[in-house]
Design a protein that fits this description.
By secondary structure, this protein is α/β, with parallel strands linked by helices. It has 2 domains: 209 residues, Rossmann fold; 49 residues, no CATH class. It contains 13 helices and 7 strands. Strands 3-2-4-1-5-6-7 form a 7-stranded parallel β-sheet, sandwiched between helices. α1 crosses α2. The chain is globular and about 65 Å long. About 4% of the residues have low confidence.
Length: 314
């Protein structure tokens, strides 16, 4: 069954790709096996991260950007993350509505999914979906995050180029100045520039960027857009292509991707260790001694880790 599904996937079946992403999203054994098979087939797609506060028009900008990419005959995949309900675990998945006009384009694949409680703006399922679409033969992948707070900078761990989207009137001069947010952006977009004082936001961003330390040779542009009209979107695409050329010509792209892969592997190791410890037979007994103040947390951690390392489980 898996072999047939993979054959259809390699033949370009969007239905097969959707089924595989569902398996991956549900973290099934079959999904993990497929990821292992697909990983060697990837590494060609260029990943663009789209992030910014809720209401900044990220999905509208993504929609307009994908249309321009298709005009240049690029195959494009979009993974859009929507907020997950803390009560039901469900998500609105509104990007399927906003990008519905692209759904029938054979050169575009769009997948929306929830955060599943991830606080970094990009879930593990979204990361794995990008791996699937990379192997699917997409030229460009757009990872759109749920929104940006001070801690929601995970998009920088998957994207080659990060676009930070903001709008006038949301207090984003304060939001943008938060530690971590300005550092991850390679391109800054002031969307909905037809309302509010967009020029003031542009000046603030430019001044802030001049004060910060950036990669030598690349000064992040600040671009005004009205995404629903398509105004300024061509400049955004030009900036993406320019940043890609900069990374490639400076010899930085390979190193950037190697650093990201190392971080991803280490994060997965941490996740596996936590899962193993949470499911460990002795975990409850050790924690009970900590609760009773018979054992300190540091010694307890050492005992649990040692128990896991000595386990015969793989």
């Amino acid at each position: 069954m898996l072999e047939q599904l993979l054959r259809e996937f390699y033949q370009g079946s969007k239905l097969a790709a959707a089924r595989i992403i569902t398996m991956v999203e549900n973290d099934t054994p079959a999904g993990r096996e497929i990821l292992r098979k697909l990983y060697p087939k990837g590494g060609r797609a260029y990943i663009v991260g789209m992030t910014g506060p809720a209401g900044s028009g990220k999905s509208t900008l993504t929609n307009s950007l994908v249309k321009l990419m298709r005009q240049q005959n690029y195959r494009v995949g979009v993974v859009a993350v929507d907020p997950t309900s803390p009560f039901t675990g469900g998500a609105l998945l509104g990007d399927r509505v906003r990008m519905g006009d692209l759904a029938l384009d054979p050169g575009v694949f769009i997948r929306s999914m929830g955060t599943r409680g991830d606080l970094g703006g990009l879930s593990w399922a979204a990361r794995d979906a990008l791996t699937v679409l990379d192997a699917f033969g997409c030229d460009y992948l757009i990872a759109e995050t749920v929104g940006t707070g001070q801690s929601q900078v995970d998009v920088a761990t998957v994207a080659d180029t990060v676009i930070m989207v903001t709008v006038p009137g949301l207090g984003d001069d304060i939001q943008a100045a938060k530690a971590g947010i300005m550092e991850i952006g390679n391109i800054f977009v002031v969307n909905k520039a037809d309302r509010g004082d967009a020029d003031q936001v542009v000046r603030f961003l430019q001044a802030t960027l001049e004060l910060g330390s950036r990669d030598a040779g690349w000064q992040p542009p600040v671009i005004k857009t009205i995404a629903w009209q398509g105004t300024g979107v061509e400049e955004v695409l030009k900036a993406i292509l320019a940043h890609r050329r900069f990374l490639e010509q400076a010899g930085l792209l390979a190193g950037l991707r190697q650093a990201r892969m190392k971080e991803e592997v280490m994060r997965r190791v941490e996740r596996m260790i936590l899962d193993r410890l949470n499911n460990g037979i002795q975990t409850g007994a050790v924690l009970s001694r900590v609760y009773a103040r018979e054992l300190d947390p540091w010694t307890a951690a050492e005992k649990m880790l040692q128990s896991m390392l000595c386990s015969k489980q793989e």
